[in-house]
Write a structure and sequence with these properties.
mainly alpha; 311 residues; elongated; two-stranded antiparallel sheet; 4 strands
Length: 311
C-alpha cells in the first residue's frame, strides 16, 4: 500500500513520517516542560495544544531529519544546517502566529543579536546543537523503535492522534479568537469610561467658568442681578447633577459590571497558554491583555500560597 511505501525523495513512508512526527512532537514537549520547570520552579504544560505534544518540534525535526540525513557524517555541516533550518522555521511560525492571532508568543528582544524578537543567535546555536544531537544519536533509535513496533499498533496510534490533534487545534484556536474578542470589548469599555470621566470634567469646568464670568459681570456693575445669576448658577448646577448623575451614573454602572464580568477570566485553555508562554503579548490590546495576565498570575500566586499552607 502507498501508505507504507517509501517515498523516494523523502526516504520514509507516510506511516513512518506520521510516527516520527508524533514521537518528536512528544519529546519536544517533554524537553520544553523540563526546561521550563527547572527555570521557573514549577510545572507548566508547554505548547499551543492541551495535548502533551508540540507540533512545531514534530515538523521541525522531520524537516532536519529528511534534509540532513544524507550529510549526517559531517557534524559541522549538520550543526550549521540545523541552526539555519530551525531558525528559519521558528521565524516563519512566529510571523504566522502573529498574523493569525495578532499576538506575540515568544520574545527574544532582550537577547543579543535578535531579529524583531522572533529569533536570536543564542537560540540558533541551541537549535544547531539540538539538531546535531538528534541526527547523530537520537534519530537512529526512533527509527529502530518504529520498525520494532507492530504495524497494527502504529496504525492505531496514528488514527487516534489524527482525530485528537484537529479537535485540540480547533479548540485552542477558538479559545484565542474568543480571547481577542474579550480584549477588544475590555479596551472599548475602558475608552468609554475615560470618555465619560472627561465629559463630566468638561461639564464641571464649563460650569465653573460660566459662574466666574457671571460673577465678574456682577462686580462690574450688575450687582442687582446677583440673585438672578445665583438662580441661574444653581439651575445649571442642578441640571448637571440630575443629567450626569442619573444617565452617566447608570451608564457607568453598566459598563463597570460588564468590565468586571469580562476580566473575571475563566477560560482554562487561555490561562494555560498564558502560563506556557510567559513572553506572550497582544499586539492590538496590550493594556487589556496585561490586565488578564496579571489576574492569571495572581491566581497562580494564590494557589502556590494555598499549597504551601496546606503542607
Amino acid at each position: 500500500m502507498a501508505f507504507f511505501d517509501t517515498i523516494p525523495f523523502l526516504g520514509y513512508s507516510l506511516y513512518q513520517l506520521c510516527l516520527l512526527f508524533l514521537i518528536w512532537a512528544f519529546l519536544g514537549w517533554g524537553v520544553e516542560v523540563c526546561f521550563h520547570t527547572i527555570k521557573m520552579g514549577e510545572y507548566s504544560n508547554r505548547g499551543f495544544l492541551d495535548m502533551p505534544i508540540c507540533p512545531i518540534y514534530g515538523f521541525g525535526v522531520l524537516i532536519i531529519t529528511i534534509v540532513l540525513k544524507p550529510v549526517s557524517g559531517d557534524p559541522l555541516l549538520v550543526f550549521l544546517l540545523s541552526s539555519l533550518i530551525c531558525t528559519a522555521f521558528e521565524l516563519a511560525v512566529g510571523v504566522a502566529m502573529r498574523k493569525i492571532f495578532h499576538s506575540i508568543w515568544w520574545d527574544y528582544t532582550d537577547e543579543h543579536f535578535n531579529f524583531h524578537g522572533y529569533i536570536c543567535l543564542k537560540v540558533s546555536i541551541e537549535w544547531g546543537i539540538g539538531g546535531l544531537i538528534v541526527i547523530s544519536f537520537v534519530e537512529p533509535f526512533t527509527e529502530m523503535l518504529i520498525n520494532a513496533m507492530p504495524i497494527v499498533l502504529g496504525c492505531i496510534i496514528i488514527a487516534i492522534f489524527a482525530v485528537l490533534i484537529p479537535i485540540d487545534t480547533w479548540g485552542s484556536v477558538a479559545a484565542v479568537k474568543k480571547l481577542n474578542v474579550r480584549l477588544k470589548e475590555i479596551t472599548e469599555i475602558n475608552a468609554k469610561m475615560l470618555e465619560t470621566a472627561q465629559g463630566i470634567g468638561e461639564k464641571l469646568g464649563e460650569f465653573a467658568l460660566d459662574t466666574q464670568d457671571k460673577g465678574a459681570e456682577a462686580y462690574a456693575g450688575l450687582y442687582l442681578a446677583a440673585d438672578e445669576i445665583s438662580d441661574k448658577a444653581e439651575e445649571l448646577a442642578e441640571g448637571i447633577r440630575s443629567g450626569i448623575s442619573d444617565k452617566r451614573a447608570e451608564m457607568a454602572e453598566k459598563m463597570q459590571n460588564r468590565y468586571d464580568a469580562l476580566i473575571a477570566f475563566s477560560d482554562r485553555r487561555v490561562k494555560r497558554m498564558i502560563r506556557a508562554f510567559p513572553g506572550m503579548q497582544s499586539i492590538d490590546y496590550e493594556d487589556a491583555f496585561l490586565t488578564i495576565k496579571s489576574i492569571v498570575s495572581g491566581e497562580e500566586k494564590k494557589n502556590a500560597a494555598d499549597k504551601s499552607l496546606s503542607r
